[in-house]
What does this fold into?
Amino acid sequence: MSLISEASGWIRPGGFPGGGVARGLAERDDTMKRVLALLSVAAGLIGLFNLTAAAADSRPIKIGAIFAQTGPAAALGAPEAKTAQMLVDRINAEGGVLGRKIALVLKDSGGSPEKAVSFVRQLIEEEQVLAILGPSTSGETMLIKPICEENRMILVSCAAAETIVKPLARYVFKTPQKDSQAVIWIYRTMKDAGITKIAVLSGNDGFGSAGKKQLEDLAVEHGITILANEVYDKQATDLTDVLTKVKGTPGVQAVVNWSIVPAQSIVAKNMKQIGLNVPLYQSHGFGNRKYAEQAGVAAEGILFPGSRLLVVDELPESHPQKAILARYKKDYESQFKEDASAFGGYAYDALAIVVEGIRRAGSTDREKVRDAIEGLTGFAAITGVFNFSATDHTGLDLDAFEMLTVKDGKFTIYRK
Amino acid sequence: MSQFLQYLFSGVTVGSVYAVVAIGFNLIYSATGVLNFAQGEFVMLGGMVAISLMPLMPLPLAVMVAVGVVACCGCLLEVALFRRLRSHSVLHLVIITIGVSILIQEAALHLWDEKVRSLPYFTGNEVSSVTVAGASLSPQVFWVLGTVALGVALLQGFTRCTLSGRAMRACSSNPEAAMLVGINIRTMRTLAFGLSAGLGALAGCVISPIAMTHYDMGPELAIKGFAAAILGGLGNPMAAVVGGLLVGLLEAFSVSLVPSALKDVSAFAVLLLVLFLRPHGLLGRPSGTAVREA
It folds into this structure.
């Protein structure tokens, strides 16, 4: 089957030189294309029969992955890449999927959307992978979303921005919780604490701007007034100036910071240093112990909606995610000697979803796998219990979050 | 008023780091005529080396050793690379420094990793705060300001009052004449690289608790430091201090007027404006006269 598609691919670029010059020629060109298309469909069908009949295909299934292993978003990409590789090794050790091994083609985008674009082309055209996992950041994902859609390539993004699945793209899924759900959790917690006037800070990357928009859109509905709204550079190393402005704005009862970069720790430290003593809420991007460690004592009391992975020990045994969370945490931490983070969980889910899709489709036909993924319901993974549908490519509801806080340097479930 | 002071301190803190990088640019430029864009990497290396040494020795010693190590790296760079490439044009050498910058970053990525680290606060911790006339500051800010001031003062003393320092200035003022009176111009160039690297490393250590140390923090600092050096007037280390503080203050105060997303824009807009009016920088002398006199 692959031989046929390669052959037709080989004919097309050659084309008919000067085909556009004469109209007759162009028409013939069209007919030729149609004949070729019919031929390749027929060949494809035959190929399929061959595949099921012979089951001789023992080549590994290629799955691509683009993660920001280095660069400013490395705190996301590094655990994601490690997790994906770990899970692939585990699946292969357990016999693979459909009797075939999985080969992970891993690319490091350094968090740069430009690099992500060139890697996605490489994965589609050269590597001809079945599906792509990642990228780590929303900015990168938004740039490659149209490319994947155009090339009918399954993309399971590990980035959070809602715009990735809204408007819906047929081939694009994502594993992290929705921004809007995180915002609703934050606003509800604020309401309970009697907070109505807030300051919003966000990083100038895809995640920050998407979150900022959700915070603005949902504020009125939840009775929240945004008094100050500031965007800072994603590489900022000192935010005292921005926070000074917030401090000088009368009436601010709490600060919401929305970013994924180290600035999350800097905000916490700078707030205490300049004596801005109001509660700090962060996005689900704070779900990495490294950030809390970097902020040290200043992290105490930070509130954020987060993944259950961070508080797995506090979950009851009966929780549907308990077993899978506990196993992932143990495996990851014993192999890499560092804390498991929510980000690694996103990559775990992305891979698990694709593999489950292949298993249910019973083939590596991309269309069938896509349909199988869209039909997944009640699929318990790291981030939550996924229920995909033709209209929902996130598959998670409000329940996928817990409101967490930092106590004695550790994440714990927030109780009023 | 307290708001004003808060912005002022924020600007001076950031600006003093830019100033150190700008001085580094100046030292090497004066001695060799090359703009060293790997300047920010020295700052990063200083922080990284000190953090790695922390488990082995007390903080002050770790900082001193880090400064020493990075200074040696700077000297080594000159001896191994730039000395051999003297025959190339200055433009080539500048491009080579960009290459060196990328090389050092990649090396740092492999030696350490992509994680963000930091030294502990020299006094107090993450939440310590000192109130000065209504403005609250981290005590680390005073360490940054104090260390940078001391570093600049020592450097000034060295170039004005010691024989080697005077020899260095002579080299930058007129290399041929300096050679004729028997100054070893090659040693002076190596010394300039070492001093520049050491000073950068020191800044890297003191800002690490506040700004954190990350393998790719260098280029951003180099660009800001370069802007500071140009703003002050290239070839004059004291003008670099003025330039650095100005860039820092511009950034900080622009936040009070325009959205913080436009911070860099406003700082660089002012820089451009100044250069239109005074192409040789605020304190520089027009070319044709001895610009390279320190």
DSSP finds eleven helices and two strands in chain B.
